[in-house]
Amino acid sequence: MIEVQNLTKRYGSNYAVRDISFQVEEGEILGFLGPNGAGKSTTMNILTGYLSATDGIVKVNGHDVLEEPNEAKANIGYLPEQPPLYLDMTVREYLSFMYDLKRCRLDRQQHIAEICRLVKIENVYGRLIKNLSKGYRQRVGLAQALIGNPPVLILDEPTVGLDPNQIIEIRSLIKKLGKHHTIILSSHILQEIEAVCDRIIIISQGELVADDTAAHLSRRYSDDRRLLARIMGPEADVLSLLSHLPGVEKAVSLGEREPGVIEYALDPKEDADVRRDLFDRLASRGWPLMGLKSMEMSLEDIFILLTRERLPGAPASKKGGTN
Ligand code: ADP
Ligand code: MG
Predict the structure, then answer these.
(1) Which atom of ligand 1 is nearest to the CA of 156?
(2) Region 179-198: what's the mean pLDDT?
(3) What's the pLDDT tens digit per position in 192-210?
(4) What pTM, to 2 d.p., does this model score?
(5) What SS3 class is residue 150?
(6) Under 8 Å CB-to-CB from 164, ≥6 apart: which residues?
(7) Residues with CB under 6 A from ligand 1
(8) Among 229, 219, 226, which Cα is nearest to 268's?
(9) Residue with the nearest Cα to atom 7 of ligand 1?
(10) CA neighbor of 296 nearest in space, from 250, 257, 261, 265
(11) Tens-digit pLDDT profile for residues 47-75
(12) Cβ 60 vs Cβ 72: under 8 Å
């Protein structure tokens, strides 16, 4: 449904987006996750034809955004980060105006009424937009995106600035819309993406660092490899033993977790299983192993790992994560 190939956007010598490629299948709800400044809005503005790319190709439903902008745009409903609302119009005037702007051919009355019912703004239909709460304004923004019944919806941080109840309502609305639309939704909030999306793309400093389902991401990065061991014994000596264990890349102490018991994190080398060795050596020193488990990484840990590793000013490095 959407195809993005080697998309790059440069401002002067700065890359806002760098060599991003991904696809969105029909019916998918794709989460576009990244910290502020990662390049989410830039990408969305390019997908929707509001901004031109420095390099790369974007196709929407087979139409190249550059070569066939009108056809491509007709397939997309866009809710930008700052919805283009006219505050001095009533909801009715605004939606009718957007209907004309988009040259919609569907029955005006019926189509707009249907959308208003769907996003639940019938009760403010006659009100001036400037008198609406932020939650209602966001719904009006969504209504505008739905005019013409485009198969693809692109929503840029649709819950920013809303209160918790409004957030829940907008999220469930997006899920509902996802039954009949392909959706790309951006957010810097992991929980939001996790709650709504089938698949997650993580971008950091303009680069794509992960593209997978939430479940796959968790599995891939926890990988059952990092171990947490609770050991009773003198901390410095235990740590030295762990660090010198064959197959251990790195060991760190996480501090006392129970009286006299210290927890350590062990990073094994690729494919090494250090458990048996660990047990034998601790036993020979008389230091009881009080607990051993693999460290499950939450999606949040992964997000932090993928987006915080590169510090500002550090050279960009390609990370695993795609394919
Ligand atoms: P996000 O939406 O993920 O917060 P943006 O796409 O808005 O990120 O911005 C990505 C990067 O591009 C940021 O570093 C931002 O400062 C830069 N940027 C965005 N727009 C412009 C512009 N018009 N001129 C120069 N730099 C820009
Ligand atoms: Mg943004």
Answers:
(1) 2
(2) 90
(3) 888 899 899 999 999 999 9
(4) 0.76
(5) coil
(6) none
(7) 11, 16, 34, 36-42
(8) 226
(9) 41
(10) 265
(11) 999 999 999 999 999 999 999 999 999 99
(12) yes
